[in-house]
Specification:
Layout lengths: L4 H7 L3 H8 L5 E5 L2 E6 L2 H7 L5 E2 L6 H8 L9 H15 L2 H22 L4 E3 H17 L8 H13 L6 H26 L8 H6 L11 H16 L1 H14 L12 H15 L5 E6 L3 E3 L2 E3 L4 E5 L1 H4 L42 H16 L26 E3 L18
Parallel strand pairs: 2-8
Antiparallel strand pairs: 1-2, 3-5, 4-9, 5-8, 6-7
């Protein structure tokens, strides 16, 4: 069986859907990083994959991904009771509606401040500046100290960890260096917080610092820093979706009407969901078969890498009519098909579903509504989105110009772009 690691690196998001088409829709059997792998597709595969009796995550993530994206000892690398206790920490922090609302308030506040600053500049690269907005907002919301002079470096590091996890060469090395810097910064903050007399409060920072694992022991300062980054990093990663929202408003300007209806909260939610479905984010997720498994009449041996197709499922024409048309209205008529919308993974809401999903949707809807009511230009640039790059984004970073410092005005895009 030929190893597919190189084709995956060369073809990116298109690799697995292309392999699935060539297999006639059957599970894809291959090798990745020298290890036997099988890729599954469909809503039933989502339920199968997130059954802990079937798939284990411990030792499933390649070490380069752990060393860049998640960190050593992170919740993503645990199984069983250890995973459940650690994940309960994040669920309690990130699923509370008041917490979600608090973060969106910080995002709105810092976006308004940034917008006024951008109005004094000739051009702004939205990707770079949105990363700073979200870095400021999540640090303020979580109660993590961040000096103004450290903002730019911290934002670049948090972006680099995501940008380099699936890469080789310079991007991957930047991601490793970024993680080391940010872990060291947060270890120092954790040690200082634990050395203080009292100081207990309900901030995200303090709750993670005080968390005790399944064995009743405090996390080490390094693991605490890792888990703090697992709040900060994915929130700043919403930068990708925010820029995709701007891209959607430019390419499909009629869709901004979705964001100005009487039922605005529902409309913002629908727009955010369609951005998450339509644009490429995670290509797939993986785990290891915990025992001999049966799927489509074939046995999956224990220890086999099992991949769940995410990008392909979000664009499956059997689940999403006209899947390559951006259409937020598909989410205004009712909930998404069960286990069909999986840009950040799937699983039951009270199980393996990403605990940051509610935050992603709320922040994305907030940013999209802001952009839809703002006046700015979109000058000539390269807005193509290369599918071979993981994670991908518009090549130009989405440049805006002629920003008007009145964010309540309706969207006004001018100029030309190559897409």
């Amino acid at each position: 069986m030929v190893d597919s690691t190189l084709p995956l690196l060369l073809h990116g998001y298109a690799w697995l859907p292309d392999r699935r088409r060539r297999s006639g829709g059957a599970p894809v059997h291959t090798r990745l990083l020298g290890k036997k792998a099988v890729a599954l597709h469909g809503p039933a595969a989502v339920r199968f994959f997130y059954d802990e009796q079937h798939i284990h995550r411990n030792d499933a993530l390649p070490q380069p991904v752990i060393d860049t994206l998640f960190g050593r000892g992170a919740v993503h690398t645990l199984d069983g009771e250890r995973h459940q206790v650690r994940k309960a920490l994040f669920t309690g922090l990130l699923k509370d509606p008041s917490a979600v609302g608090g973060l969106t308030e910080h995002v709105s506040e810092h976006l308004e401040r940034a917008w006024a600053d951008w109005s004094r500049k000739k051009r702004v690269v939205l990707f770079d500046e949105m990363a700073k907005v979200l870095t400021r907002a999540v640090h303020a919301w979580a109660g993590v100290p961040l000096a103004e002079h450290a903002l730019g470096r911290t934002a670049r590091d948090l972006i680099a960890m995501v940008d380099g996890f699936a890469a080789v060469g310079p991007r991957h090395l930047r991601a490793r260096r970024a993680r080391r810097r940010q872990e060291e910064r947060l270890v120092s903050l954790v040690e200082s917080a634990r050395a203080e007399a009292g100081g207990a409060d309900a901030t995200v920072f303090r709750r993670i610092v005080a968390h005790r694992d399944a064995d009743g022991v405090l996390l080490t300062p390094r693991t605490t820093a890792v888990e703090l980054l697992n709040v900060l990093r994915p929130t700043v990663a919403i930068t990708w979706f925010a820029v995709f929202a701007a891209h959607a408003l430019y390419r499909c300007p009629d869709t901004r009407e979705v964001l100005t209806t009487d039922d605005e909260p529902r409309a913002g939610w629908a727009f955010a969901q369609e951005v998450r479905r339509f644009y490429p984010f995670a290509p797939f997720v993986g785990g290891l078969a915990a025992e001999p498994l049966e799927w489509s009449g074939r046995t999956i041996a224990p220890g086999t890498m099992v991949l769940l197709d995410l990008y392909g499922l979000d664009h499956d024409p059997d689940l999403w009519p006209d899947p390559y048309r951006f259409d937020p209205s598909r989410f205004l008529t009712g909930p998404a098909p069960a286990d069909a919308l999986v840009p950040q993974g799937g699983g039951p809401v009270d199980g393996h579903r990403c605990p940051g999903e509610d935050i992603t949707i709320a922040v994305l809807a907030t940013v999209a509504r802001f952009l839809a009511r703002s006046a700015y230009g979109v000058p000539e640039q390269d807005l193509r989105i290369p599918l071979r790059r993981i994670p991908t984004s518009p090549r130009s970073g989405f440049v805006i110009s002629d920003v008007t410092a009145r964010p309540d005005e309706r969207f006004a895009a001018t100029g030309a772009a190559r897409d």
